[in-house]
Amino acid sequence: MQKKVEWYLDFVDPKYKPAKDELTALFYFEPAAGVSTNEAMGRIASESSTGTWTTLFTMPPRMKKLMAHAYERDGGFVKVAYPFDLWEPGNAPQLLSGIAGNIFGMKALDNLRLIDIQLPKEYLRHFSGPRHGMAGVRKMMNVYNRPLLGAVPKPKIGFSDVEHANIGYETWMGGFDFVKDDENLTSTKFNNFDKRVKLLAKLRDKAEHATGDRKDAYINITAETDEMKRRAKLLHDYGFRYAMIDVVTCGFSSVQTLRETLGDYGMAIHAHRAMHAMFDKNPKHGMSMYMLAKLMRMIGVDQIHAGTAVGKLVGTATEVRNVSDTLREKKVSEQKNVRLSQDWHGIKQAFPVTSGGLHPGLVPDLMKLFGDECVMLVSGGIHGHPRGTRAGAMATRQAIDAVHEGETLANHARYNTELREALDKWGTMHPK
Ligand code: CAP
Ligand code: MG
């Protein structure tokens, strides 16, 4: 008689010590009624590595070596170690197919959240990381000691290419570094990608000439992957130093591809996270924003939206701080049940982007949260200025100066008209 293989519980071993090259993930989990804690943990480790739903009667010895181990539990939190050989080097989608795959659909779990994964040096080595990173972007833009500033023409979609470019010009002339596309603007009947690029390039040159500063744009190349490559080339041909990608809707594979295409052109990536809240908003289930930011730094975006804590969209100050840490730190320390330690082993640092419902009155809060090392997008909050986009951008720059000079906004506004007008309109309101 063949010996029965007891499957699920084999994946649980509280005494297990992960090897140095193993990937270790942190999950939060809630077993379904009638499922024991041990069985639930075993299923997480099993279905995300070598498991199947039933007992089996044959198993090559190799399988043993590829099994994941749920090894450390603290209440509803568990750590799972994954052998290095389970993973294909340089394949980000495969990693997610394992650790963020079938396990999320298991009936045995009421809730499951992937919080973090610690990536060993040997695994990270196969990914590019940001082409420029924080230091490289600053050098490329010649902007130091303040947040990089950008704005999306608002309302978010509907302007013609000409109208869009003209608002962009005003944004640059008000002292902003970047004009940004909105996440749902790609190439439409009324605002064609190629035409927008050409018009923006012309006005960018004009604004650079007029101000003596470097100006650029986050133009959204989001599309089918081959088309994205074509758009990347067009941006390069027109002298843009950046491209923007909606990284979640495009998918990890195309971001990896475009990281190489854009990298060959020497271009940086602005990552918009549209769709993230579908999987990260419920704190008990899904995947954390922290994970997304981490994976995107590994693949190689130079910056990604991280939240505001004070603006119109989800994300607490603690979450925003953690996301910023995983993007900006060279080594991240562990915080129990919140994040794991991570040595980035030389992968470049990426900027957190703060955006969504921002205006000059919120600048001191944002600077407290992020400091200077961030990209700040103030869109509605400049175009809604009583005297328009240029004045709104100036007001934002004045608010940053006030913080740098240790002055209150109210005081600084006494001799900065644009800031005063912005404060008269919005004060320090937190939009909903
Ligand atoms: C901001 C924005 C961004 C959000 C995305 C918008 O505009 O362009 O897409 O910031 O959210 O459409 O809301 P406003 P997040 O400045 O006019 O609000 O940064 O949280 O990913
Ligand atoms: Mg937007």
Supply the key terms.
5-stranded mixed sheet; alpha/beta; single chain; disordered N terminus; 15 strands; binds 2-carboxyarabinitol-1,5-diphosphate; 8-stranded parallel sheet; 432 residues; binds magnesium ion
* Helicity range: 25-40%
Cα-to-Cα separation, first versus last residue:
66 Å
What is the subunit organization of this protein?
Answer: single chain
Shape: elongated
The largest β sheet comes out as:
8 strands, parallel
Low-confidence stretches: 1-5
The radius of gyration is 24 Å
- Percentage of β-strand residues: 15-25%
Widest beta sheet: strand line-up? 7-6-5-15-14-11-9-8
Q: Report the count of strand segments.
A: 15
Structural class: alpha/beta
Question: Which ligands appear in the coordinates?
Answer: 2-carboxyarabinitol-1,5-diphosphate, magnesium ion
Number of helices: 18
Mean pLDDT over all positions: 95
Please, could you describe this protein's structure?
With 432 residues, the protein is α/β, with parallel strands linked by helices. It has 18 helices and 15 strands. An 8-stranded parallel beta sheet has the order 7-6-5-15-14-11-9-8, sandwiched between helices. The chain has a 5-stranded mixed beta sheet with strand order 2-3-1-4-10. Strand 14, helix 14 and strand 15 form a beta-alpha-beta unit. Helix 6 packs parallel to helix 7, helix 8 runs parallel beside helix 10 and helix 16 crosses helix 18. The N and C termini lie far apart (66 Å). The protein binds 2-carboxyarabinitol-1,5-diphosphate and magnesium ion.
